[in-house]
Amino acid sequence: MHPTVQAVTARIVARSAERRAAYLARCARMAEAGPARAHLSCGNMAHVTAASGTDKPAIARARGGNIAIVTAYNDMLSAHQPFERFPAILKAAARAAGGTAQVAGGVPAMCDGVTQGRAGMELSLFSRDVIALAAGVSLSHDCYDAAIFLGVCDKIVPGLVIAAASFGHLPAVFAPAGPMTSGLPNDEKARIRQRHAAGEIGRDELLRAEMASYHGPGTCTFYGTANTNQMLMEVMGLQLPGASFVNPGTPLREALTAEAARRALALAATGARYTPASAVLSEKAFVNGMVGLSATGGSTNLVLHLVAMARAAGVLIDWQDMAELSAATPLMARVYPNGLADVNQFHAAGGLGFMIGELLGAGLLHEDVETVAGPGLARYTEEPVLDGADLAWRPGAGASGNADILRPAAAPFQPTGGLALLEGNLGRAVIKISAVKPEHHRIEAPVRIFETQESVKAAFRAGELDRDVVVVVRFQGPQANGMPELHALTPPLSVLQDRGHRVALVTDGRMSGASGKVPAAIHLSPEAADGGALARLRDGDVLRLDAGAGRLEVLLDAAELAARTPATADLAASHEGIGRELFGAFRAAVSSAETGAAVVI
């Protein structure tokens, strides 16, 4: 093993020892009772089976495994629309394998692409914890031997993982839907967005480009949070090898979905090899997830989600762990916004199977982990194929099919990963540097302070930002307004950077998983609404962002900064309308960004 991976893993194990032991003991107590259906009263069982048709006798006998299907299906979210057909496939496969499956419940699944720049985005991060709660309610009927989770996108997968960890005595298999086929190239989409932001083209042309990009069922094809989630589910062993990036509606995708049911039954206590979710969600699995995040230049949203997911499994990780692993991990992939390729092209070039093999060879991933495919991560270097009508796995690509998209660990795009930790007199923040050119890794400029995205865009349109500037958008943290993504700022800030200005963004909010070429110090903690120093900044203060040195600081004497009266914000408008009034308890209870911005753990 790489010495950094060894050291970080040992530190996490030591830090987590008490919490992890208590978690595993709780899961063991649940498992000791045996399959829960065997203990149901006749009245309980009658309710369980009342609408189960021909499956009723098998469920009531409590011999074959019964799978809970927890689904995030809806028609509006393109990545989740294919899940409409999955329950029928899963039920048929379970039946053929001697078991049964029931849809245990649904969870909400919002599309951040719809809510970007709108009030609904202020519910986005909180939806992760709502999903965990809803999945918990789904599984609380306590009549299942395993669970299959149907989810892909931004907050959905992390919320489902938190629920799977909470029910850690049950095996958990994740079954993705896959990415949509390639549409308008992502760099062309970005170019058109920038032209629209600059006022060079109208809405009609912009709409045509967007609809040519997002054009059918499946995950958006850029490497944002949804596809980063799918990478994590493979690297952490929660879904089948090679399952992430197979397109919806194909025979191979249907075969992988059916296999998910067979695997869930095999992993159940009633099956051949009991493997609960608590065994898969280990300290080493989370280290593997952090390494995968760095090697692929994945979404900054996972910096929050990984912390929350790990805590649900009794594992304590932090941003320092991520920074050290990123510094030791080579950047092996260039997928938009970190390059020109989309995830379909990444998959065709060798994809995750090649990447996992390279990282294992470099000692950067733990091979000795439990997975839903069996013991050991080596299985995840293989790729699924159809042998006639049968699903099989064969050795994955031994070499990259396109060195502009995917490179070996020994000859990467850069020697370090896609994420860096920033520290200084404003607190701690993270930055995604994989898409930022080296000449923009260090920015020093006067700040201009805002408290909404709209005010930034208005200042841009008025020409007030046409200079070297650090745009500060504060009171965007979880306590203030739910920590919305500020992706709508990417086009105007990109225009300013393309004009030759030194530009950066600093915020206690989030950027999209598609955040790209403009340096952005995000998730700044403590947030302005929680007494953070960000609330003491004033227009004209000079701020230095240095990704190479890991520094974020305002160039002020410490005494002067401390003596300033913190600014306050009228947040009433962010606390009502579009359902926001329902989440007051979440804003009051949410933890800091560094501890996952979590409510339920």
Short description:
By secondary structure, this protein is of the alpha/beta class.
Describe the biggest sheet? 8 strands, mixed
Number of strands: 16
Give the overall silhouette: globular
Kindly report the average pLDDT value.
94
Total helices: the number is 22
Going by helix content, strand content and strand pairing, the class is alpha/beta
Query: Low-confidence parts lasting 5 or more residues at pLDDT below 50?
Result: none
Radius of gyration: 24 Å
The level of helicity is 25-40%
* Distance from first to last alpha carbon: 32 Å
Q: Beta-strand percentage?
A: 5-15%
Give, in spatial order, the strands making up the sheet with the most strands.
9-10-14-13-12-11-15-16
- The tally of structural domains comes to 3
Task: Give the SSE layout.
Elements: H1 3-32, H2 42-49, H3 56-61, E1 66-71, H4 86-96, E2 100-106, H5 112-115, H6 124-139, E3 146-150, H7 156-166, E4 172-174, H8 186-197, H9 203-213, H10 225-235, H11 251-267, H12 277-280, H13 283-296, H14 301-312, H15 319-328, H16 343-348, H17 351-361, E5 370-371, E6 374-375, E7 382-387, E8 390-395, E9 419-424, E10 427-432, E11 442-450, H18 453-461, E12 469-473, H19 478-481, H20 490-498, E13 503-507, E14 520-525, E15 542-546, E16 551-554, H21 558-563, H22 584-589
Parallel strand pairs: 1-2, 1-3, 3-4, 11-12, 12-13, 13-14
Antiparallel strand pairs: 5-6, 7-8, 9-10, 10-14, 11-15, 15-16
Helix pairs in contact: 1-15, 4-11, 6-7, 7-14, 8-9, 8-20, 10-13, 13-15
